[in-house]
Specification:
The complex is a heterodimer of chains A (155) and B (147). By secondary structure, chain A is α+β, with helices and mostly antiparallel strands. Chain A has 2 domains: 3-45; 64-141, 2-Layer Sandwich (Alpha-Beta Plaits), CATH 3.30.70.920. Helix content of chain A is 35%, strand content 29%. A 4-stranded antiparallel β-sheet of chain A has the order 3-4-2-5. Chain B folds into 2 domains: 3-46, no CATH class; 65-133, Alpha-Beta Plaits (2-Layer Sandwich). In chain B, a hairpin with a 5-residue loop joins strand 3 and strand 4. Chain B has a 4-stranded antiparallel β-sheet. The termini of chain B are close together. Chain B has 147 residues and is of the alpha+beta class. Chain B has helices spanning 3-11, 22-30, 34-46, 78-86, 113-126; strands at residues 50-57, 65-71, 91-97, 103-109, 131-133, 137-138. Classes of the chains: A alpha+beta (155), B alpha+beta (147). At the A-B interface, helix 2, helix 3, strand 1, helix 4 and strand 3 of A face helix 2, helix 3, strand 1, helix 4 and strand 3 of B.
Chain lengths: 155, 147
């Protein structure tokens, strides 16, 4: 077994059997303990982000999904970005490039809520946190999922 | 969804044990038993509450690449443009959003150089400019949705 084979075997998920790591090892023709050893190493170096349940936002009622975008002073981002990212309702928070004049925003924070009003209230909290160092912001609500295949790593 | 389902969804989004009987160990933490936890996970996956259960891989750390892109599709041509963009296997997710830039999609490729190539091909196929929004810094800690 190599790591690529392990990734491929686990992309669909962990087997729902009492000894799931042994089952994967057996399927890949490896020793029973090899899968946990490799996964522990992958967790340590970040190739595995976490092991657990991946909930479906929509099934949990989080049907309002707003991509909030912010024009923040570049010099303030290193301090403010992590504070926005630490808010419990922000799922993804990134610095991304501006594309002037079409696009002035450099901070993206994905906010999930059960209604647009809930998302708007959360966005107002972010605005309060950023204060005067944010010059403008917008919220792009998703109106439709056009495609969602999940990431496939064909390695 | 009852109390136990909620405890599973809220409590098992990370930290699933790496040991011989991980379901048994996780079940004990949740105040249940191995067989019940496995049955509940199977049901939560079947009814779509969970999209998957297992390790969440980082595509970039594994040597791949992904990036966010956007384009402005003419509203009266939106469906045709959607079909063209979605036909690219590199397009992993695609969302319609209420903005002049009304189509936002994630490109995932096995190699970093595949991103620029996919963008060129999408621009050629749609006749529209694609804006690229690669992540330059990442600030979030971890997603914790509560059920």
């Amino acid at each position: 077994m190599n790591d690529a084979e392990l990734v491929r075997a686990l992309q669909v998920g962990l087997p729902l059997v009492p000894r799931p790591y042994h089952a994967v090892a057996e399927a890949l023709g490896a020793a029973p303990g090899e899968v946990t050893v490799r996964l522990a190493a992958m967790l340590a170096d970040g190739r595995v982000r976490r092991i657990g349940a991946v909930p479906n936002h929509y099934a949990l009622g989080y049907t309002a999904n707003g991509m909030s975008v912010w024009d923040v002073e570049d010099a303030a981002l290193a301090e403010l970005g992590p504070r926005v990212g630490a808010l419990p309702f922000v799922s993804h928070c990134y610095r991304r490039p501006r594309h002037p004049p079409e696009w002035r925003y450099n901070l993206f924070a994905m906010v999930h809520g059960r209604t647009r009003a809930e998302v708007a209230a959360k966005v107002a909290e972010i605005a309060a946190l950023l204060g005067a160092r944010c010059r403008a912001h917008d919220v792009l609500y998703s109106t439709r999922i056009l495609k969602k295949t999940g990431l496939r790593f064909g390695i | 969804m009852d109390e136990l389902d909620r405890a599973i969804v809220n409590g098992l989004q990370g930290g699933f044990p790496l040991c011989e009987r991980p379901y048994a160990e996780a079940a004990a933490r949740l105040g249940t038993d191995e067989a019940t936890l496995i049955a509940r996970l199977r049901a939560l996956l079947a009814d779509g509450t969970l999209t998957r259960f297992g390790p969440l891989f980082d595509a970039v750390a594994l040597g791949g690449a992904f990036t966010l892109c956007a384009l402005a599709a003419p509203p009266d041509d939106f469906e045709r443009i959607t079909a063209i963009v979605n036909a690219f296997p590199e397009v992993a997710h695609n969302y319609e959003r209420a903005h002049r830039l009304n189509m936002w999609f994630v490109l995932a490729t096995e190699k970093p150089e595949g991103i620029a190539d996919a963008i060129r091909r999408i621009e050629a196929a749609t006749g529209l400019a694609v804006l690229e929004f690669p992540k330059l810094d990442e600030y979030f800690v971890e997603l914790r949705l509560t059920a």
